[in-house]
Design brief:
The complex is a heterodimer of chains A (about 400) and B (about 280).
Chain A: H1 2-14, H2 16-42, H3 57-68, H4 71-81, H5 88-112, H6 121-124, H7 131-156, H8 158-163, H9 167-175, H10 178-201, H11 213-241, H12 248-278, H13 283-295, H14 303-319, H15 321-324, H16 327-354, H17 376-399
Chain B: H1 2-29, H2 35-46, H3 49-55, E1 65-70, H4 79-87, E2 98-103, E3 109-114, H5 123-127, E4 133-135, E5 141-143, H6 153-157, E6 164-165, E7 193-194, H7 200-208, H8 222-226, E8 232-236, H9 243-250, E9 266-269
Parallel strand pairs in B: 1-9
Antiparallel strand pairs in B: 1-8, 2-3, 4-5, 6-7
The chains are: A mainly alpha (about 400), B alpha+beta (about 280).
C-alpha cells in the first residue's frame, strides 16, 4: 500500500498534467459506474425515455462511437486490400480506435436494452428480416475481427514479451493473416455501418427517416470522420511524446482520404436535402419539416453545426496543405469531426422520433410534438462510456506498440 | 507501473470468463418456455385431457382473426379500454387499447378507439431482432416475452403507436380490477415490450373447447364482449358466414394508414360525415 502511494506521489510529481488527466478519467468512470448500477437496479424508469421517444442519448452514443471507429476498417482496407504499404503505419492505431469505439458502443447498448441479460438472444433467435438483427450479428463478428487484428499489438507489447517470450513471434504469425481478415472486416463494416442508417431509413411510417439515402450517408460520414479522428489522435499523441510517428506523406495522404470522403458525404447530403425537401413536396414530409423548423430545435438551423462546423470545416482543413501541416489544425479538425458525427446522429434519431405519426382518421390535433431531454442517469452513463473510451485510448497509447515498424523485413 | 499491468491481465481474464460464462448461460437459457408453451400449459390446467385430445387444435391458418369497429355506433364510453386493462392486467399508465375524441373534416365529433391492428405486414414483426414478436398463421401478431431483449425498435417502427414498454417493475393492483374483470394473463416483467393480443388466451382456449371466437363470449376478446352498443365485432375472415365476413361485404370500411402497406386486420366503419 505504501509502495503504491509512493508510486502515485512520484507520478504526480513527475507528470502533474498526466496525473490530473487520469484523475478526470477516474471521476468520469466512477460517475458512469454509479449511473450504470442505478440503471441496472431500478430499470429504464430512471431515464427520460418514453413510449413515444423510446430512443435517445444512448443510441446517439452507440451510433457515434461505431461511426468514429470506422477508421479501423477503412484505413486497414487501404493498407491491406489496396496494398498501399505506407498506410500500414497508421492501420494499427486505427484498429485500436475502432476497438475502443465498438466496445464503448456495446457498453452503452447494454445499458439501453430493457433486458441486458438477454443481449445474446439475436445470436440464437435469428430474424433475418430485421436490420437490427443484421447489425447485431455484424457488430459481434466485426468485434472479433478487431480483436484478431489487434492481437499482434498486444502480443508484441513489452508486458507480454517479458512474460511470454514467444508472444512477438505469435503476433507476427497472426499478422500474416491481416489481409484476409481485412477483407472480412471490410464486408462486415460496409454492411452494419450502412444498416445503422437503414435502421431509420426503412421505417415507412416516419416521413423524416424513410429514404434510401440514410444508409449511404451513415457509412460515408463514418469513414470520413473515423479517418480524420484517427489522424488527429495520432498527431495529438506525437505532440504528447514529442516524437513524430508518421511521415508527412502519410499524414497528407490520410488527410486527403478523410477530406475527400467528407466532401463526398456533403455532396450526397446536399442532394438528399434538394431531392427530399427542395425539389419535391411530399405532403407528409413537408409537414414534418415545418414542424421540426417551428416547434423543435432540430430544424434546418440546427444543421449548421452539423454540416458547416462538423463536416465542411474539417474537410477544408484536411484538404488545405497549409492548414493540415499544422498540428493544432489537425487536432481541431478531429474534434470538429467528432462534434459533426455526434450532432448528426442525435439529429437523425431525435428529429424522426419527435415528429408524431398521425394514424387517426379524423381531423383533430391528437398528437403533439414529442419532447425529450436526457435525464441525469442518461448523462451519467454517457459520461462513463466516454471516460472508458478515453481511458482505453490513454492506456493503449501508453502501453501498446500502436505504431509498429513495417513487418515487411520479417517476411520469409 | 507493475500494479497497473497486473490489473490489466486480471481484467482480461475476467472478460474471458464473462464471455465463456455467458455462452454457457445462453446455452442453458435457450431452453426457456415460449409463450406458445405457456398457453399450452394453461390449456392443460383448465381442461380435461379428453377434450383437449378430441379438439386439440393447431394454428394452421384455417382461421384468420379480424376486428370491425363501427365508428357510427361508438358512444365513447371507454368500456373497451377498461375491460382490456382489467383482463390483460395492463398497468394503469399504459394502454393496449386507446380512446381519443375525434372530429371529422366537416367538424362532426366522433369517438376513435384503436387496439393493436394485427397487421399482415407488420413493421414491428419485421424489425424485431429476435423474433420475439411474430404473426401466427391465424393472423394474430403476438409477443414472446421470454425472447424480448427490450430494444424498443418495435415501438419506433409501429406506425400506430400500438406498442408499450415496461419501463418499471409492476407493483400494486390494477385500478380496473375487479370492477371490469379479473386478470386472465400473467404480468409482464420489467424491460420487455407488450401489446394488445386480441385476447389470444381466450381464442386458443376457446378453440380447444370447441367454442367459436366472436360468437361464444368465453372465446371472444374482452373489449368486444363489453361494448354496450356492439360497435366492435370479432371473427374469422376465412369463414364466409361469420358475422364479420358478412358485415365487411355489406358495409363501407377502411383501415388505418392503408397507404403504408401494413395490411391491418382491424376494419373501421366510417362515422357520419366522413367520406372514404
Amino acid at each position: 500500500m505504501t509502495a503504491m502511494i509512493g508510486t502515485v506521489r512520484r507520478q504526480v510529481q513527475t507528470a502533474p498534467l498526466f496525473s490530473f488527466w487520469l484523475l478526470v478519467l477516474g471521476i468520469m468512470v466512477i460517475v458512469g459506474l454509479i449511473s450504470g448500477i442505478r440503471v441496472l437496479w431500478y430499470g429504464l424508469e430512471v431515464t427520460n425515455l418514453t413510449d413515444r421517444v423510446p430512443w435517445g442519448l444512448w443510441i446517439t452514443v452507440d451510433l457515434s462511437a461505431i461511426a468514429l471507429g470506422a477508421g479501423a476498417f477503412s484505413l486497414s482496407t487501404v493498407a491491406y486490400i489496396f496494398r498501399v504499404k505506407s498506410f500500414e503505419r497508421i492501420a494499427r492505431i486505427a484498429v485500436f480506435v475502432g476497438f475502443v469505439g465498438y466496445t464503448s458502443a456495446m457498453l452503452a447498448l447494454l445499458m439501453d436494452i430493457g433486458r441486458p441479460d438477454r443481449f445474446w438472444h439475436p445470436v440464437i433467435y435469428w430474424n433475418i428480416h430485421s436490420v437490427l438483427w443484421e447489425i447485431t450479428m455484424c457488430v459481434i463478428l466485426y468485434s472479433m475481427v478487431l480483436v484478431f487484428e489487434l492481437a499482434p499489438a498486444v502480443l508484441e507489447s513489452d508486458f507480454v514479451a517479458q512474460r511470454f517470450a514467444r508472444g512477438p513471434r505469435l503476433g507476427h504469425f497472426l499478422h500474416q493473416f491481416t489481409p484476409a481478415v481485412s477483407i472480412v472486416g471490410l464486408g462486415l463494416s460496409l454492411l452494419h455501418q450502412s444498416s445503422l442508417g437503414a435502421t431509420y431509413g426503412v421505417l415507412v411510417a416516419r416521413p423524416v427517416w424513410f429514404k434510401p439515402s440514410l444508409p449511404v450517408m451513415f457509412i460515408l460520414s463514418a469513414v470520413a470522420a473515423g479517418s480524420i479522428v484517427t489522424l488527429a489522435l495520432t498527431v495529438f499523441y506525437e505532440n504528447m511524446i514529442r516524437q513524430r510517428q508518421i511521415e508527412t506523406r502519410l499524414r497528407n495522404a490520410v488527410a486527403m482520404f478523410g477530406g475527400l470522403l467528407m466532401m463526398g458525404y456533403l455532396y450526397l447530403k446536399l442532394w438528399d436535402f434538394l431531392a427530399t425537401a427542395y425539389y419535391s413536396h411530399v405532403p407528409e414530409r413537408v409537414q414534418a419539416n415545418n414542424l421540426l423548423e417551428t416547434a423543435t430545435p432540430y430544424g434546418l438551423t440546427f444543421w449548421w453545426i452539423e454540416i458547416v462546423v462538423g463536416a465542411l470545416v474539417p474537410a477544408i482543413i484536411m484538404l488545405t496543405p497549409r492548414l493540415r501541416r499544422q498540428d493544432s489544425w489537425v487536432v481541431v479538425a478531429g474534434l470538429l469531426a467528432i462534434v459533426g458525427v455526434v450532432v448528426n446522429r442525435w439529429n437523425v434519431t431525435l428529429s424522426g422520433l419527435v415528429v408524431p405519426m398521425d394514424w387517426s382518421p379524423g381531423a383533430a390535433e391528437l398528437f403533439p410534438v414529442r419532447e425529450y431531454v436526457p435525464a441525469m442517469s442518461e448523462w451519467g452513463v454517457a459520461i462513463g462510456v466516454l471516460g472508458y473510451a478515453l481511458l482505453m485510448l490513454t492506456l493503449g497509447l501508453r502501453f501498446l506498440p500502436l505504431f509498429p515498424k513495417s513487418h515487411e523485413k520479417g517476411h520469409h | 507501473m507493475a500494479e497497473e499491468k497486473y490489473l490489466t491481465r486480471r481484467e482480461f481474464i475476467a472478460a474471458m470468463a464473462a464471455v465463456g460464462g455467458s455462452i454457457a448461460v445462453a446455452a442453458a437459457l435457450s431452453e426457456v418456455d415460449s409463450l406458445r408453451d405457456l398457453i399450452e400449459r394453461e390449456l392443460a390446467l383448465e381442461l380435461p385431457d379428453v377434450v383437449r385430445e378430441a379438439k386439440g387444435h393447431t394454428v394452421d391458418g384455417t382461421h384468420h382473426w379480424a376486428m370491425l369497429i363501427d365508428l357510427r355506433k361508438c358512444i365513447g364510453c371507454q368500456y373497451c379500454v377498461y375491460a382490456c386493462q382489467a383482463v390483460n392486467d395492463v398497468p394503469d399508465d399504459m394502454r393496449w387499447n386507446v380512446y381519443h375524441p375525434e372530429v371529422t373534416d366537416t367538424g362532426i365529433p366522433f369517438h376513435m378507439t384503436r387496439p393493436c391492428l394485427h397487421c399482415n405486414d407488420a413493421p414491428c414483426v419485421s424489425v424485431c431482432p429476435t423474433r420475439a414478436t411474430w404473426q401466427r398463421d391465424d393472423g394474430l401478431v403476438v409477443m414472446d416475452y421470454q425472447l424480448c431483449i427490450g430494444c424498443r425498435y418495435c415501438q419506433v417502427a409501429c406506425p400506430y403507436d400500438a406498442r408499450s414498454f415496461n419501463w418499471q417493475e409492476r407493483e400494486g393492483p390494477s385500478g380496473y380490477q375487479p370492477e371490469w374483470g379479473n386478470a386472465e394473463v400473467d404480468r409482464r416483467p420489467r424491460g420487455v415490450a407488450e401489446k394488445c393480443t386480441f385476447c389470444i388466451h381466450r381464442i386458443d382456449r376457446g378453440l380447444a373447447q370447441g367454442l367459436v371466437p366472436g360468437e361464444d363470449r368465453a372465446a371472444t376478446p374482452a373489449c368486444v364482449n363489453i361494448c354496450p352498443v356492439e360497435a366492435r365485432v370479432f371473427g374469422d375472415l376465412n369463414d364466409p358466414d361469420s358475422k364479420i365476413s358478412r358485415l365487411l361485404k355489406e358495409l363501407p370500411t377502411f383501415r388505418l394508414r392503408e397507404d403504408l402497406g401494413t395490411e391491418p386486420n382491424v376494419y373501421y366503419v366510417p362515422p357520419e360525415g366522413m367520406a372514404i
